[in-house]
């Protein structure tokens, strides 16, 4: 791995500013670290205690509950509150809006492992966002009997109408969801097993691949990677390195306070930035803006 360290934040911002100015296209990629930086931190225990007092009393300390076994009434009580808080309640987010301003009028795409849809809520074109891990905005049959999904917003509203904050449970058994087609159990449409229905996301993935393939040898691509760790490195980190390695004139900026390192063979094409996203954006905002203009080659 590349052990080179960025000497300081100002130097990092200067390089990012130059690379962005020289880029013809920008691919923004993001992992869970970006959601946390924007305020959607699944590990925030105070927020968890506020939203889920009953589950907190039972010992829950993180919103990552894959593998936690709860009765259906508690399980769907959790999901209703969690999705309403993360996916449907938030208004505009300043950090994501700053990212949208950062790419400005550059031709760009987004690929993210996050399933909470903040890019689309903050000015990025929905048709240019690829979310291969799913979206809290959909639910699916657990079988699945159909390779399709349904809008989760009506589901969440119905569950919240029957939700008791004191117990954390759905009080009306009739409100617990079942597949509208076959009557079996349902789950939120996120990638947690082989039953995941990925058909809704394949068209965007195909369009992104076509966009990448359409670049000629002179097209300069900049990958801006935010908050991508090692929970699912094959979704964000590894593909970004692969593209940088195999597409001509591609550069990678990896923004992550911990583990920002990049492969040694990409030393001249990749920049590890061991700082929080907001600090880098502050440094970019305070720098000379004439450097954003493309340079001649």
Automatic annotation (TrEMBL):
Keywords: Metal-binding, NAD, Zinc. Zn(2+) binds at residues 141, 145, 179, 182. It comes from the Bacteria. Residues 5-287 form the Deacetylase sirtuin-type domain. This is NAD-dependent protein deacetylase of SIR2 family. It comes from Streptomyces flavotricini.
């Amino acid at each position: 791995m590349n052990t080179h360290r960025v000497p300081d934040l100002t130097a990092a911002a200067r390089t990012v500013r130059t690379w962005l100015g020289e880029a013809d296209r920008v691919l923004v990629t993001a992992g869970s670290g970006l959601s946390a930086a924007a305020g959607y931190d699944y590990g925030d225990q105070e927020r968890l205690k506020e939203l889920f007092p009953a589950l907190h009393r039972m010992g829950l300390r993180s919103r990552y509950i894959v593998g936690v076994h709860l009765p259906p009434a508690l399980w769907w009580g959790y999901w209703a509150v969690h999705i309403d808080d993360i996916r449907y309640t938030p208004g505009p987010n300043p950090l994501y809006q700053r990212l949208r301003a950062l790419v400005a009028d550059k031709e760009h795409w987004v690929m993210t492992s996050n399933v909470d849809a903040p890019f689309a809520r903050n000015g990025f074109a929905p048709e240019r966002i690829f979310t291969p891990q799913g979206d809290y905005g959909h639910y699916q049959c657990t079988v699945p009997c159909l390779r399709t999904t349904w809008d989760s917003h009506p589901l969440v509203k119905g569950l919240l109408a029957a939700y008791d904050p004191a117990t954390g449970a759905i009080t009306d058994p009739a409100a617990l969801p079942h597949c509208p087609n076959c009557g079996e159990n349902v789950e939120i449409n996120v990638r947690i097993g082989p039953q995941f229905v990925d058909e809704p996301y394949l068209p965007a993935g195909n369009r992104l691949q076509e966009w990448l393939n359409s670049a000629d040898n002179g097209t300069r691509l900049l990958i801006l990677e935010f908050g991508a760790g090692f929970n699912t490195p094959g979704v964000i980190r590894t593909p970004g390195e692969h593209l940088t390695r195999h597409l001509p004139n591609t550069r990678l900026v990896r923004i992550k306070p911990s583990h920002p390192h990049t492969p040694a063979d990409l030393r001249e094409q990749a920049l590890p930035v061991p700082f929080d996203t907001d600090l880098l954006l502050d440094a970019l905002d305070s720098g000379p803006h004439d450097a954003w203009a493309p340079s001649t080659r």
